[in-house]
Design brief:
mainly alpha
């Protein structure tokens, strides 16, 4: 059975993952060089379960919380390379988010 998540719930969950003040959530952890596999799966689940409204209108806050994900991940990559870390997980996450967000938000 496919689980469908509405945009307000997705926003709430994504805001938790973006907590870079308390350094919690997937992106908060990544900011301090911790790749949280469970956090990655949480964000993937959110984006796989979200359903956009039939009207085609997309909530501005949802866009703010999602479009920047691939860019943020790309920004982490040089530090990983410099530190000699294996970038495989990070690269796979970048690929997933770029493809999934293209599906959700579309292309110009």
């Amino acid at each position: 059975m496919e689980v469908i998540m509405d945009i307000p719930k997705a926003i709430e969950l994504l805001e938790n993952e973006w907590n870079v003040v308390d350094l919690t959530g997937f992106f908060g952890h990544l900011k301090v060089d911790v790749f949280d596999d469970e956090g990655l799966q949480r964000v993937k689940d959110i984006l796989n379960e979200v359903e956009l409204p039939e009207s085609g209108e997309v909530n501005k806050r949802f866009v703010e919380l999602t479009w920047f994900i691939p860019t943020f991940l790309h920004w982490q990559r040089p530090a990983w390379v410099q530190d000699g870390k294996d970038t495989k997980k990070l690269d796979e996450a970048i690929d997933f988010f770029e493809m999934r967000l293209t599906t959700i938000l579309g292309l110009p």
